[in-house]
Amino acid sequence: MADPSMMICAALQPVCGFINNTGAPAATARRFSSFVCIKRNRRALTKAIEDLQAVEKVVQEQVSLETNQLNKCDPRVELWLSRVDGVLVPIDAIEQECDQLMQYSCFCSSSLSLGKRYRLGKRVLEILEDLRGLIEEGNQFKVFGSKPLPALVEDQPRIEALGIKPVLKNLWEFFNSSNVGIIGIWGPGGVGKTTLLNTFNNELKEWGTDYQVVIMIEVSNSGNLNIAAIQRMITDRLGLPWNDTETVQTRARFLAKALGRKKFIILLDDVRNKFKLEDVGIPTPDSEIKSKLILTSRDEDVCYQMGAHQSLIKMEYLEKESAWELFQNNLSTKAIAAIESPAPNVVREHAEAIVQSCGGLPLALKVIGRAVAGLTEPEDWSLAVQATKDDIKDLHGVPEMFHKLKYSYDKLIKQQQRCFLYCTLFPEYGSIRKDKLVEYWMADGLIPQDPKKGHRIIRSLLSACLLESCKSDSSEVKMHHIIRHLGISLAVRENIIVKAGMSLERAPSERVANS
């Protein structure tokens, strides 16, 4: 026998259309439709779900295209997708209830069944309205994503930062001083200036700041300054449009105005020659412009010339413990096991000798550490020690290290280069009085008979980190072991003075082809 409820619903179907056509109140039409026309609404629900899923697929494809280009999903689209998920998730249960009700319900059953039919029908109509609204909204989207706004601080590579806590603390002290606008950090190549700057940058992000933008730029201006490249980096970080047709002068004026409206921090890494900030479009931080500029350089004079007059930090070589730790961090586990084996331990003695030869220079500790990383036998370690004394350039990675360090030499004028190479003749790990060194240069014809000229050259070599002042006696200078080997390799290449390591007490007269 046919279900009475189904028969009555079928008989009342025309009434649904009549109520809608007579202009009855919408609420009345919906209530009647939800109770009587549940089967028809169930079919409409299925179609609306299919239509919405098709629109959702198109939107998701467009969002994927944007995210693949590193763009950010439009927040309106993001909200729409979350609402679609919220609507579609519970629909399976609603559909199952509809199917069960149409299969088993009886119109003449208890008031509980009638109430359930009404509530379910009402819920189906509500979902239908939501689905149709989402379909219409999804079809109207024209923009699906956009370039993300620049972050306050961009993460920089996290490099092993041993032994920099004191100098990092010093940097923060200068930074927090209201009287300091420009801070200079100087030291030899490979000493950790970039590591310090990266660490400082990342701490700005971790701890937060009231500055509006932090911009880090690698300058490395060994030749002409690439102003356009620096301007492009600043423009990108500010989220501003780039115009290839503009001159650097026009762009500099525009950037100066844009940065002038912000409280900024600019980090300039590896500044090799001075340049005018205004040529790039960077306002000079001062008491009025509460912004900061921090630069690193191998040359102390460059820091002064860039405006870091009262806020200068020198990066020193690593202390013994930090140097040993950094060296070990670049060894293999089997090499470390050989070093830590019970006494008497010849391997450890050799390893300590190698660390000493690196003189606390992080770059050398990493490069030479990797070169000997797999050694376990005492004989192999002994050969490595000898190589660091005699011909360090034959160790793996050392030529590349020399190439990085060589810029400080290349920047010197020819006369200064000859005077630097001359210094490789003096005893390793020894020192020499400045006035004696000047006398030797004059006696050998490297400079005119003018002591002041000689002392200016010493000052230039100290500023370039190619010579060091002796802590025990400021009237004496010395040469770092690694820098000395760099000098010897350059002297051999240029067929200049290379008879090194003799305890000389007078101007050397020998010039040979090999040391």
UniProtKB/TrEMBL annotation:
GO molecular function: ADP binding; ATP binding
Keyword Nucleotide-binding among UniProt keywords: yes
Domain NB-ARC: 169-331
SUPFAM superfamilies xrefs: P-loop containing nucleoside triphosphate hydrolases (SSF52540)
Xref: InterPro entries: Apaf_helical (IPR042197), NB-ARC (IPR002182), P-loop_NTPase (IPR027417), Plant_NBS-LRR (IPR050905), WH-like_DNA-bd_sf (IPR036388), WHD_DRP (IPR058922)
Biological processes, Gene Ontology terms: defense response to bacterium; innate immune response-activating signaling pathway; plant-type hypersensitive response
Domain Disease resistance protein winged helix positions: 425-486
Keywords: ATP-binding, Nucleotide-binding, Plant defense, Repeat
Entry-linked Pfam families: NB-ARC, WHD_DRP
Name the record gives this protein: NB-ARC domain-containing protein
